[in-house]
Amino acid sequence: MYFVELNEFARRGRATDRAEDRDTGLRIALYGLAGEAGSVVSEAKKWFREGGPPVGLGDRVKEELGDLLWYVAAVANRLGLDLNAVAEENLRKTAQIWREEVPPPSRYDATSPPEQSLPRQMRVRFVEDSSGPFPVVRMEPLGDLAVRVDKERQRKHLGDPLNDNSYVDDGYRYHDVLHLAHAAVLGWSPVLRALMGTKRKNVSIETDRVEDGARAIAIEEGLAAFVFNYLEPDFLENEDRLSWELLKHIRRTVRGLEVEDQPPVAWERTYTEAFSVFRLLREGHGGIVDIDLDAQRLSVVELPE
Asked: Of 25, 195, 202, 242, which has the fewest Cβ atoms less than 10 A away?
């Protein structure tokens, strides 16, 4: 059987591309690309409608895919793209995106002094106070973390007491567990760095300004709120995979920050860990949580009696 490599296909297809004007030809190629993709979808529609592959589906789809490939080559020709390089880059990207193994623990603060690094192991207590008009939760550092936070911040808790800030009781008062999961699995959390006083001021002005600054903190808070709302109401109770739509939003949100190198499987682990703990804390009205950055895990070690 004779095989045609992609650049050879594009070269030979150029002879049958009759549009002379570059811009007109590009528009025609792009419209044709959309049209042929629609033809493939139309064939698939018959499958769903008829409850099984219609007779001759393979041959019809093969023809449509051939036409689709011709328009792909035409677009590449008009834009001066190397189709072989495009295909190779796509394979590298998809292999990275859909890898099954969570990458080893990230050390974004590897060059930071200990006092400006996220602790590798932490323990915190979530305490819920229901004595007021609505439940309020505060997060208290325990053990070595308590000593460190008190020394850096002269306070006995991490951040401010939180309520749901919502018309409904959805448990958002426990959302700091998402920041803990960001730290545990990804080695990243500008919010926790700010709360613990571990901003990397000694690394570089740019690191402190960009990675640990106000914008990065706002991005993480916004991401946590978006993911929380997106996964409500079951919060991954019955699954451990994130939709591609959500993954794309996450990757766009953190673009330009150090954590943008994390693959989807790492984000899936992050929120699986976060919401498994979140559900226990909300049901138990608080609890003690261990955070292990080396094992990339969160675990509830004690619930209130």
From this structure: 202
54 — pLDDT class (breaks 50, 70, 90): low
Question: 115 is written with which tokens?
Answer: 């006092």
158 and 278 both lie in a single domain: yes
For residues 104 and 226, give the distance between their C-alpha atoms in angstroms, rounded to a whole number. Answer: 26
Tell me the per-residue pLDDT of 192-239, one tens digit each, with 9 for 90 and over. 999 999 999 887 889 999 999 999 999 999 999 999 999 999 999 988
Q: Residue 75 in contact with residue 33, Cβ under 8 Å? A: yes
129 and 93, same structural domain? no
Examine the domain organization and report whether 88 and 119 are in the same domain: no
**How many domains does the chain divide into?**
2
Query: Both 35 and 66 in a single domain?
Result: yes
193 in a domain, yes or no?
yes
**Both tokens of residue 135?**
């439940």
Single out the residue of 267, 221, 216, 243 nearest to residue 106, CA to CA: 267
Task: State residue 198's pLDDT score.
Answer: 92
Residues 261 and 140 in one domain: yes
**Domain match, 151 and 18 both:** no
| Greatest alpha-carbon span in the chain | 78
Distances (CA, A) of 203 to 162, 182, 214, 218: 32, 21, 17, 21
pLDDT of residue 121: 96
Distance from C-alpha of 197 to C-alpha of 151, rounded to nearest angstrom: 9
| Residue 240 pLDDT class (50, 70, 90 cuts) | confident
Tokens read off for 72: 């792909």
What tens digit of pLDDT does each residue of 103-136 get?
A: 899 999 999 999 999 999 999 999 999 999 999 9
Residue type at 191 in one-letter notation = V
Q: Which domain holds residue 46?
A: 6-97
Q: Would residue 68 count as lying in a domain?
A: yes
